[in-house]
Design goal:
By secondary structure, the protein is an alpha+beta fold. Helices cover about 15% and strands about 30% of the residues.
Length: about 400
C-alpha cells in the first residue's frame, strides 16, 4: 500500500512538471503583445549614427539620409534624393541657412553629422498612448462629414473639430507662405489637440482628398507632453490609410540635418511679453513635381507629388488658421482646451495669436498677397474661438485668432 502511494505521488508531480513545462513553452498573450511592440518600434526607428538627448526628454536619432523611412514607400523605391530645388525661383528665396540660430530644443545639445537627418525616436510609451500600434502616427479615420473650409475632419460623433481659419478656394495654387506665432495653449486631455497650421488641398472627400499640412501643434497622445512642436502631415485618401505625421510612415523625404519634425520649438510667445514666430512655406516645384517644406530659411524636405497625385499639377485650396479637437461628454461641457494664445482675436498683438504676411503662391511661383476681402473665413463657434482679418503695410494680410474654449458664453 505504501509503495502504491509513493508511485502515485511520484506520477502526480511528474504530471505537474510536464504541464508547467508545456505552458512555459507557450507565449502568453502579453508576451505576444510585447513582441508586436518591439517589432513595430524596430520598424519605426531606423538605425542611428548618433543619438542626441534633448532637455525635454526626447531622443533625436541621426539617421543616414539614405536609410530614412521615405524609401519604404512602394512608389519611392528607386527615388533619387534631391538635396535642393532645381528651380532658382524656389532656391533663391531660401537665402541660405542661418546656422547660428537654434530653433529647436534638441539642438542645444548637439547636431547631426553630414549626410544624416534628425528623426525623433519613437518610444514604447508613445505606442502605448496611441489607439493602435499599427496606426501610430496617423489621424483617426474620419467620417464623410466635411468642414466647408478645408474639407476636413469630423471623425465621429464623439470627436469634434473646431476651426478659426481663412482660405482661398477654387484656384490653381503652387503653395503657401506665412509667419505663424508660437504659443503654448492649455490642452485639457491627452487625446485632444491644439494647433496652428497651413493646409494645401486638392481633390474631394469621396474620391480621395489630398492634403499637405504643417505648422505647430500640441498633441500629447502622439508626443507625450504639452509642448508646441513643429509638425508636418500628409494624406492622399481623405485621412484613411495613406499618410501620417512627420516621418512616422514612408512618404516625406527629409534633407535637412538641422530641423527635426515633431521636435519641440525653443521660443514661445508670452502674454503681453515677447512674441516669437516663424516663416513656413510649402511650395511646389513644377519641373520635378516636388512640394518643398521650408521652415524659415531651412529646406526641411519635400513630398513627391507621386504620393499625392491630385496635387500633381496644383492645389485647389489653401487655408491658414487654428484648430482644436475635443470630446464632449454632454451639454454644458465644452472643453477648456485653448486655441492660439487662449485669448480672443480682438485682444490683438502680444495677447492673441496671429498669422501675418499671408500669401499664396501662383502657378508662376510668385507669392501673392490676398486682400482681406478676398479671403473666406470660417469660425466654428465664435463664442469659443474667434478670428479677425486685417491688412497693414508691415504685416501684409494677417489674422488674429484663438480663444479660451469653455467660458460663460461657450458651454
Amino acid at each position: 500500500m505504501r509503495l502504491n502511494q509513493t508511485v502515485i505521488f511520484f506520477l502526480f508531480w511528474v504530471t505537474i512538471a510536464v504541464v508547467v513545462g508545456t505552458l512555459a513553452g507557450k507565449s502568453k498573450p502579453s508576451d505576444l503583445y510585447e513582441q508586436k511592440i518591439e517589432q513595430r518600434l524596430k520598424q519605426l526607428n531606423k538605425p542611428a549614427v548618433k543619438s542626441i538627448h534633448s532637455p525635454d526628454g526626447d531622443i533625436i536619432n541621426c539617421v543616414r539620409i539614405n536609410d530614412q523611412p521615405a524609401f519604404a514607400h512602394p512608389l519611392l523605391k528607386n527615388h533619387i534624393i534631391q538635396m535642393r530645388p532645381k528651380s532658382y525661383s524656389i532656391r533663391d528665396k531660401t537665402g541660405g541657412n542661418k546656422a547660428d540660430i537654434i530653433y529647436q530644443l534638441w539642438r542645444t545639445k548637439g547636431e547631426c553629422p553630414e549626410n544624416t537627418i534628425p528623426i525623433r525616436k519613437i518610444t514604447r510609451d508613445d505606442l502605448l498612448r496611441s489607439d493602435s500600434i499599427e496606426t501610430y502616427g496617423r489621424k483617426s479615420p474620419p467620417s464623410p462629414t466635411i468642414s466647408p473650409t478645408i474639407n476636413h475632419l469630423q471623425h465621429d460623433q464623439s470627436e469634434v473639430h473646431e476651426h478659426a481659419c481663412v482660405y482661398v478656394d477654387y484656384g490653381e495654387f503652387h503653395g503657401s507662405k506665412s509667419r505663424i506665432s508660437i504659443w503654448k495653449p492649455e490642452v485639457l486631455m491627452t487625446s485632444e489637440f491644439s494647433l496652428a497650421q497651413t493646409w494645401v488641398v486638392n481633390g474631394d472627400w469621396d474620391t480621395g482628398l489630398n492634403s499637405l499640412e504643417s505648422g505647430w501643434q500640441i498633441l500629447k497622445s502622439l508626443y507625450g507632453d504639452n509642448n508646441p512642436r513643429l509638425f508636418a502631415y500628409w494624406t492622399s485618401d481623405s485621412y484613411q490609410k495613406m499618410g501620417c505625421y512627420n516621418l512616422d510612415c514612408p512618404g516625406f523625404v527629409q534633407v535637412s540635418r538641422d530641423i527635426a519634425l515633431g521636435a519641440v520649438l525653443i521660443s514661445i510667445s508670452t502674454y503681453n511679453g515677447d512674441q516669437y514666430d516663424f516663416q513656413l512655406t510649402i511650395e511646389k516645384e513644377q519641373e520635378t513635381g516636388l512640394w518643398w517644406l521650408k521652415f524659415e530659411t531651412h529646406l526641411i524636405g519635400y513630398w513627391p507629388s507621386i504620393i499625392v497625385p491630385k496635387l500633381a499639377n496644383s492645389a485647389r485650396k489653401i487655408a491658414w488658421g487654428g484648430e482644436i479637437v475635443h470630446y464632449p461628454i454632454g451639454q454644458g461641457t465644452h472643453t477648456l482646451t485653448q486655441m492660439g494664445s487662449g485669448h480672443f482675436a480682438e485682444e490683438g498683438f502680444k495677447k492673441a495669436a496671429y498669422f501675418n504676411n499671408i500669401q499664396y503662391i501662383d502657378t508662376s511661383n510668385h507669392p501673392i498677397t490676398p486682400f482681406p476681402q478676398n479671403l473666406e473665413a470660417i469660425v466654428s463657434r465664435p463664442e469659443c474661438y474667434n478670428l479677425q482679418v486685417g491688412f497693414s503695410r508691415r504685416w501684409g494680410t494677417y489674422i488674429f485668432y484663438g480663444g479660451p474654449g469653455r467660458n460663460p458664453q461657450c458651454l
